[in-house]
């Protein structure tokens, strides 16, 4: 065998290198789409946040004026407060309720597949259809919830027409499309070794002790993932709120996403809307960072 043929011989490709090539191949469509369709608008929004632009005239450079206006804007801070109210309520209710549903759907019962399908179906319904459905459910006169309360002798509130009850109504509605969260919980529950429950039962642990000492620690990474993604989604929420309340009554449901939409497409103040968007980005980063710092105290990734 000549030196030339030896030099031409291909070197074996390691498994890690093949895996890296597959990774870059599968991630490339997202990277290309981000660079060409998202990267440009993101950079443009940074520039626009330092301008005054009403879409009719060329942007006018005003420096940090939009950010100064934001800090002195009482409605902005009310929107931030409403956003955290909605986020804390929807995440707390959604995480606990969907975990309870996932534990029920994980039981070996008849028609288990049918029950799982029924629980997942609301998550594939469009936002407009969901909003119209809940507008009827929460109607103060003929809504389903108030009719059920009336059967129990309780006078239901005005829900979306009441400044005190509008946000709790939206939080209640947010659990409706939690099918994806239930699927993630089901995957986590099925990954818990049954031997842990058997050992706990032998030690005399009841269902609550097994849940608190086995299920919660083993599911803590999954719970943490749903909490983080849930908070990010709730901070950006505005579509259903726009359709159902438009931020009312009395701005009681004016969240930050809807406030940005109003300044961009109602007031045509694109510069200020861009500055508000970057404020939302900072809030998302700060909340996520705090959650990761707190996760060290309760999220368990290894069990020895």
Outline the low-pLDDT stretches.
none
| Radius of gyration from CA coordinates | 25 Å
Instruction: State the oligomer.
Output: single chain
Shape: globular
Order of helices and strands: HHEEHHHHHHHHHHHH
Strand order of the largest sheet: 1-2
Terminal CA distance reads 55 Å
Percent helix:
55-70%
Number of beta strands: 2
The overall average pLDDT, rounded, is: 90
The largest β sheet comes out as: 2 strands, antiparallel
Beta-strand portion reads: under 5%
Please identify the structural class as seen in this structure.
mainly alpha
Total DSSP helices: 14
Q: Any chance you could write out the topology, listing elements then pairs?
A:
Elements: H1 3-8, H2 15-48, E1 51-52, E2 60-61, H3 65-71, H4 74-105, H5 112-120, H6 127-137, H7 144-151, H8 166-174, H9 179-190, H10 194-202, H11 207-236, H12 239-244, H13 256-265, H14 270-298
Antiparallel strand pairs: 1-2
């Amino acid at each position: 065998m000549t030196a030339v043929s030896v030099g031409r011989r291909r070197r074996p490709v390691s498994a890690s290198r093949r895996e890296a090539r597959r990774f870059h191949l599968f991630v490339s469509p997202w990277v290309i789409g981000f660079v060409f369709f998202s990267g440009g608008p993101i950079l443009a929004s940074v520039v626009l946040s330092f301008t005054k632009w009403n879409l009719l005239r060329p942007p006018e450079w005003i420096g940090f004026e939009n950010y100064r206006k934001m800090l002195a804007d009482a409605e902005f801070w009310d929107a931030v407060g409403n956003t955290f109210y909605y986020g804390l309520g929807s995440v707390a209710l959604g995480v606990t309720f969907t975990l309870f549903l996932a534990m029920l759907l994980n039981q070996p019962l008849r028609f288990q597949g049918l029950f799982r399908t029924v629980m997942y179906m609301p998550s594939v319904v469009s936002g407009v259809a969901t909003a119209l459905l809940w507008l009827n459910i929460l109607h103060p006169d003929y809504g389903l919830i108030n009719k059920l309360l009336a059967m129990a002798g309780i006078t239901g509130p005005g829900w979306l027409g009441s400044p005190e009850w509008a946000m709790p109504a939206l939080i209640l509605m947010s659990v409706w499309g939690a099918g994806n969260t239930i699927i993630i919980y089901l995957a986590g529950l099925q990954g818990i070794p049954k031997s842990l429950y058997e050992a706990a039962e032998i030690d005399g642990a009841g269902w609550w002790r097994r849940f608190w000492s086995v299920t919660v620690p083993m599911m803590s990474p999954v719970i943490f993932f749903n909490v983080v993604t849930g908070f990010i989604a709730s901070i950006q929420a505005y579509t259903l709120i726009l359709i159902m309340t438009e931020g009312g009554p009395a701005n009681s449901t004016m969240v930050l996403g809807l406030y940005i939409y109003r300044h961009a497409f109602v007031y045509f103040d694109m510069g200020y809307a861009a500055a508000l968007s970057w404020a939302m980005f900072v809030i998302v980063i700060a909340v996520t960072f705090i959650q990761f710092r707190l996760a060290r105290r309760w999220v368990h990734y290894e069990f020895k």
